[in-house]
Amino acid sequence: MQRRSFIKKSGYTSLALSILPGITLSQDPEYSLDELMGKKDIELFGKDINLKKAAHDAFVEMKKAAYSDGIDLKIVSSYRSFYRQDAIWERKYIQNTEKSGMSKLAAIEKIIEYSTIPGTSRHHWGTDVDIIDGYRTITGSVLDPDKFETGGPFELFKQWMDENANTYDFYLVYTNNPRRKGFKYEPWHYSYAPISKPMLKEFRRKNIFKQIMQEDIIGKENFTAGFLKGYIQNNILDINPELL
Ligand SMILES: [Zn+2]
What we know:
By secondary structure, this protein is an alpha+beta fold. It is 43% helix and 7% strand. Strands 1-2-4-3 form a four-stranded antiparallel β-sheet.
């Protein structure tokens, strides 16, 4: 199946790119390794939204409803390619090792508090978004968990999302469950379950890490078998159970 869609895609790629960048030509419901890793040009919808069709439509509906309650669901980040994630990874790795003087392992552990190894981000899937309330004026970082707490600028946003997001099939991924391991609590990161659940399933079925070790990722020599096992268990799979 993969080979068939590859042939189909490569045959039309140049034409497709000249008409509509990011067009998807295959209707194949199977997710390829490239797509799961953010290396495929997938069709994305909505200016400043950039999600797969069904996720986009659900987001627009949710945004309308939030508007009527005085909240502006503003996307800070949605689709991100492998290459974009690789650039983030490299910048943080160099920052931590060269400027902050951490050991390579410590540098990686620090990065994976909030950021992923390139090829393993849920933002590669066109289903996940980082959102805030665009009506609030913010000083400093907008993706700061404290700002979503009581008395913070995104308190109402959080309340609204707690009550309504699931109605639109969006679920918080990295919850504040104290027993959860992996990425830290991200009150801004939501996932459109009807697509991201089957994508995660496919992700688990494929040997993504074999491919990742073949990519040109800075610091990858530190990805030992034990490290990767922990990363999969904690960072990939220890998420909101609604998304498994
Ligand atoms: Zn995110």
